[in-house]
Write a sequence for this structure.
């Protein structure tokens, strides 16, 4: 099953960078056109096909953080505006929004999917609200239809941070093919990687020109030439822009990864099902309610009692199994201490319970077995029913090996 020897300790993430990927990178380097070029355009077209976009367009970027920032710029966010965001997400999203000058407003999540709670969103809307930022946690779709209804009612935009959800579907529709603006990540450990990379999907084809200008220094007429591996020496600068395009080598890597994406996703689903099967009857572990059909899982997360999590992490570490924590809760960061917020009780609870186990595009039965047995052995020695998820208080251990 595994395509390369597996390292020990078992890491949380492990991108696939096998011979096909390295060959693609080498060819792109040998071709000699390193900046944004024809490969960048081919990668965008490949994403448009894969996401089954019907008129929607993809604009690639050098990260999802930059994609989210471009989305914020596109909808004109600025000082005085508020964006309602889950606190329970990676700080990349909050930073992308606050970089526009807008204020982040922290909103709670719903316990089932750990995505932003539409009812809590509506309670936070004010005259200053301009947008909602939603996150598809670990690849599970957020409640986009309800969020779009709230957005329509209050005249808001919705930026979907689908960094975790490339390849996931909601009611049969690929994420990115519906909603308002969607952003993906192709960072080092994501479902597909371009080493670093991202993309914005927009429903309005007229946005594409603006996004091209925002992506490349506000220049009005450069993209078409670069997509032919040429440069346009005469141009105008028509707005404040940034410099966050996807170069040719990352795009070539992304194209090679796209050849394998169906296999990556099928494998990840299979490993998540194997984990679920092994943990379903373990007293002390809460699982997400999904059979993983239509979901492209980016990470595998369990929930355990807050007072056992550190011990479980230490136990797994002693067995050579790395773990992670997604996420900490951004409302606790010093930079956002003054940010407006609603009730965050689900967030406050969940941030202490979530634990990320290893999930890679290729894992051997042996690796899956080591992780499942490692987790099971921790709980088998404990008395069930002590506290939430059967936990009991034990001494604190070292923090996670791998955060985001
Ligand atoms: C939910 C979420 N949004 C955004 C990002 C940022 O993605 P990138 O590293 O491509 O900027 C991440 C990164 O892991 C993430 O987890």
């Amino acid at each position: 099953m595994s395509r390369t020897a597996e390292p020990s300790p078992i890491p949380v993430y492990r991108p696939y960078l096998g011979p096909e990927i390295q060959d693609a990178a080498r060819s792109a380097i040998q071709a000699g056109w390193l900046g944004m070029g024809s490969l960048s355009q081919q990668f965008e077209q490949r994403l448009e096909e894969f996401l089954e976009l019907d008129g929607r367009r993809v604009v690639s970027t050098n990260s999802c953080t930059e994609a989210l920032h471009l989305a914020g710029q596109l909808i004109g966010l600025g000082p005085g505006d508020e964006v309602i965001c889950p606190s329970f997400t990676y700080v990349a999203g909050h930073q992308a929004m606050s970089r526009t000058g807008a204020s982040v407003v922290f909103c709670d999540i719903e316990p089932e999917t750990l995505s932003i709670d539409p009812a809590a969103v509506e309670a936070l809307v004010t005259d200053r609200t301009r947008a909602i930022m939603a996150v598809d946690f670990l690849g599970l779709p957020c409640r986009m239809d309800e969020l779009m209804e709230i957005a329509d009612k209050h005249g808001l935009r919705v930026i979907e941070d689908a960094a975790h959800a490339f390849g996931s579907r909601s009611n049969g529709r690929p994420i990115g093919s519906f909603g308002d603006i969607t952003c993906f990540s192709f960072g080092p450990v994501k479902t597909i990687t371009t080493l670093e990379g991202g993309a914005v999907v927009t429903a309005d084809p007229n946005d594409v020109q603006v996004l091209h200008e925002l992506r490349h220094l506000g220049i009005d007429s450069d993209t078409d030439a670069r997509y032919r591996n040429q440069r346009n020496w005469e141009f105008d600068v028509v707005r404040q822009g940034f410099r966050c395009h996807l170069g040719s080598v990352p795009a070539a890597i992304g194209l090679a990864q796209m050849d394998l994406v169906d296999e990556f996703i099928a494998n990840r689903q299979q490993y998540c099902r194997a984990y679920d099967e092994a943990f379903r009857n373990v007293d002390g572990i809460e699982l997400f309610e999904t059979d993983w059909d239509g979901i492209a899982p980016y990470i595998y997360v369990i929930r355990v009692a807050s007072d056992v999590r550190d011990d479980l992490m230490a136990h797994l570490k002693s067995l050579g199994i790395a773990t992670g924590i997604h996420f900490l809760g951004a409302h606790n960061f010093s930079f956002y201490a003054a940010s407006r917020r609603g009730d965050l009780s689900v967030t406050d609870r969940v941030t202490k319970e979530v634990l990320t186990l290893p999930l890679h595009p290729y894992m051997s039965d042996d690796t899956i077995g080591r992780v499942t047995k490692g987790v099971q052995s921790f709980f088998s020695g404990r008395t069930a029913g002590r506290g939430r998820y059967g936990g009991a208080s034990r001494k604190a251990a070292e923090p996670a090996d791998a955060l985001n």
